[in-house]
Amino acid sequence: MTTTSQKTIKVALRGPALLNNPRFNKGSAFTRKERDDFGLRGRLPYAVDTLQEQVDRAYQQYQARSSDILRNSFLQSLKAQNWTLFYALLSAHLEELFPIIYTPTEADAIANYSHLFRRSEGLYLSPPLTDTMEEDFLDACEGRELELIVVSDAEAILGIGDQGSGGIGISAAKAVIYTLAAGVDPAKALAVTLDVGTNNQDLLDDPLYMGYREKRLRGQGYDEFVDKFVALVKKHQPKCLLHFEDFGVSNAQRLLAKYRDEHSIFNDDIQGTGAVTLAALQAAISVTRTNIEDQRIVIYGAGSAGLGIARQLRDAIVLSSSCSEAEAASRFYLLDKHGLLKRSLPEDQIRPEIESSLIRSEEDWGDGETGLLEVIKKVKPTVLIGTSTHPKAFTEEVVKEMCKHVDRPIIFPLSNPTRLCEVHPKDANEWSGGKALMATGSPFPPVDIPGSEKKYVVAECNNAMIYPGLGFGTILSQSKAMTPDMIVAGAKRLSELAPALKDPDQALLPPFGDIGDINFEIALAVLEQAVQDGDASSEVPKGKEERRNWAKGRRWTAVYPEYEYDEGGYK
């Protein structure tokens, strides 16, 4: 698992081929000797820049763009030219540029993918080319032992739904964050879109649409297509992590359950959302000095995110207490548009992927109203989580009802974007008299605490705080699966870094600007759990301190190595 931050590497490319290769291109930073050795003298301006000078110039160019979508386009163009400069720029201005390369701006870029397209990246697979899928996969992986594949079928992109071939954008963006936050070598990552058609009529009617212009493939044909892709990953890249992203609600959990025991599989929408929420909850219950198995948890919104959170919290309860899975599940009350999920609902109102243990029985509920306020009154929850995209659903009456039954209510309005948030933290803080412990799905500024000059810092429950570390730890361990224990270990480590543990008015998660150091600590926790459980490769060092140093040395960093020309070197 070597990195391109070695002191000297051998490269076989020369002239334009080197300048047009984003992995090895240094642009104006090629040294005098490298310009002589690689035939670059007359192809570059005379001055030799440092990487920092290049970053400063690129940032000025970035700032000159007049809109976020143009800034996104500039960064995509930079990535296509020079990986090291791209990541160095992002690292230098992380909090400012992150919303441009990811949500919310990347959603706009994906929605307009066919109109913004300039250069392909990653691997595009479609049903008419199923017979050549293996050949195409091998072409994309030629000469590479991959550590990471991010794949999407684009049915549920970033809150904007079915985006067809534009799904390559979310796969590529997630791979970027793995490099930026965890140090995964970009040369060992591959973005893939399974372009199985689209039910987005606007795309089908768009004369410039670049994808497979058919309705979305379903049923046996879809399963066979995904099966073939996963089989190729297992056959040709058996050690890589396979990250599923933005699959539709009818497929996400089903596919995760189908493949998770066959290969190292991760679904960020389910497991990542659940893990970061678990970390925030663990920090909150440290403030309240209670135990996770003693919580009563209402989840408003039973889609992929809500179910993922319920499953992850349930797993954590089982692993950290003497509760059985059924006992742990009894702590949860899930609501969707039909109200509380209970067994008396018509069959077509309960999706098949929802486990029966998470559906309430009539014996423990009765025939009363099952709206959110009624559930709050009856359950007296300690925790209220929103994944509904129903704006302002957590009303003043709901928040005040929670406060009647618990001193420090834990309220997580997690829906994105901001306009879909279940409650503004300012309102929840005011209605709870400053007692609510909060985390949100989008960034919010600190809010005033009633009767105090202090402010409460609202944690941003962003998956990027944890999934790169979970993934990198799994990659380091070479475990055949990302186990529930590994995920819980990563979430526990994240919660231990929360500022709220020292001051309850501070955030339940650490600051986003520390994302690199945070994810490294998470990766180490995941690695340690894999070692403890006997799931790690024999290549992993034996001592704990040796493992830390070994892991640190395997992080890719945005620095320029020296190049030596060699016909047998990298191409």
Strand order of the largest sheet: 9-8-7-10-11-12-15
Q: What is the number of beta strands?
A: 16
Radius of gyration: 24 Å
CATH classification class of the domain at 270-521: Alpha Beta
What is the makeup of the main sheet? 7 strands, mixed
Active site: 102, 174
Family: Belongs to the malic enzymes family.
InterPro entries: Aminoacid_DH-like_N_sf, Malic_N_dom, Malic_N_dom_sf, Malic_NAD-bd, Malic_OxRdtase, NAD(P)-bd_dom_sf
Cofactor: Mg(2+); Mn(2+)
Summarize the structure in words.
This protein is of the alpha/beta class and 571 residues long. Among the domains are: 102-248, Malic enzyme, N-terminal domain (Rossmann fold, 3-Layer(aba) Sandwich), CATH 3.40.50.10380; 270-521, NAD(P)-binding Rossmann-like Domain (Rossmann fold). It contains 23 helices and 16 strands.
Keywords:
571 residues; seven-stranded mixed β-sheet; Rossmann fold; 16 strands; alpha/beta; NAD binding; 10% strand; 42% helix; Malate dehydrogenase (Oxaloacetate-decarboxylating)
Structure described in brief:
This protein is of the alpha/beta class and 571 residues long. The protein has helices at 15-19, 32-37, 51-63, 68-81, 83-92, 94-101, 105-111, 113-116, 133-141, 168-182, 201-205, 219-236, 252-259, 268-288, 304-320, 325-329, 372-379, 396-403, 425-431, 467-477, 484-496, 515-532, 544-553, and strands spanning 8-11, 123-125, 148-152, 189-194, 241-244, 265-267, 297-300, 332-336, 339-340, 383-386, 410-413, 437-440, 447-448, 455-456, 459-460, 562-565. The chain is built from 23 helices and 16 strands.
